[in-house]
């Protein structure tokens, strides 16, 4: 996460110096596709200094705030910041830059603004879904994981349920949501094994469900300790526990 914060911030700073008035017709998005007649409607002499000032501020503030959140609050906070802050910044940037773009160019600038707003709403929706706690429902004939990447395990599919004190070494995410201690979806371990994680919070113990086909599911709740859930399952499936 630290590399992402610093690397992205440096990228924004580099953008401030990359685009100049001389190369803007080649590098500046939108402006580089205009005809010469359309470019005369853009106050490029005023826009470039604004572009540079904005990206310098964005880059420096991105690194400073991102690192502060990471060390003061945690990886989840800095992860949300990484996803949301640049979109909010560019919404402000495009709204304020309308005064430099006239005619049809202003129209496309506004369309870009609407796309950013829609993207922001989508990001908030995905974050809300990802952080919503998965509930586990234990019944004599099945165990159900409700929420993102949830599923129903019939009793006949459960080979064993164990209480473990650590997760396997995770090397990559193949399909899922991962931000801080919250991880949901399919991940690959150091040994190359594909496992499903439904982790709602950082935990000192995890429930490991091993299916009869060999697939594994690691689960941790946010509000209820894993040991309590393990004891509940033990009462229902005394023969299927380790």
What would the keywords be for this entry?
242 residues, alpha+beta, six-stranded mixed beta sheet, three-stranded antiparallel beta sheet, 48% helix, elongated
Tell me the major beta sheet.
Answer: 6 strands, mixed
Tally of extended strands? Answer: 9
Helix percent reads 40-55%
Helix and strand content put the structural class at alpha+beta
Low-confidence stretches: none
Overall pLDDT metric: 89
Proportion of strand residues: 15-25%
Helix tally equals 7
Question: How would you summarize what this structure contains?
Answer:
With about 240 residues, the chain is an alpha+beta fold. It is about 50% helix and about 25% strand.
Fold blueprint:
Layout: H1 2-18, H2 24-27, H3 36-39, H4 44-72, H5 75-97, H6 104-131, E1 135-139, E2 142-146, E3 151-154, E4 158-164, E5 170-179, E6 182-189, E7 194-199, E8 206-211, E9 216-220, H7 226-236
Description of the structure:
It is a single chain. The protein is an alpha+beta fold. It is built from seven helices and nine strands, in the order ααααααβββββββββα. The chain has helices spanning 2-18, 24-27, 36-39, 44-72, 75-97, 104-131, 226-236; strands at 135-139, 142-146, 151-154, 158-164, 170-179, 182-189, 194-199, 206-211, 216-220. The strands form two sheets. The protein has a six-stranded mixed beta sheet. It has a three-stranded antiparallel beta sheet with strand order 1-2-3, covered by helices on one side. A hairpin with a 2-residue loop joins strand 1 and strand 2 (142-146). The mean pLDDT is 89.
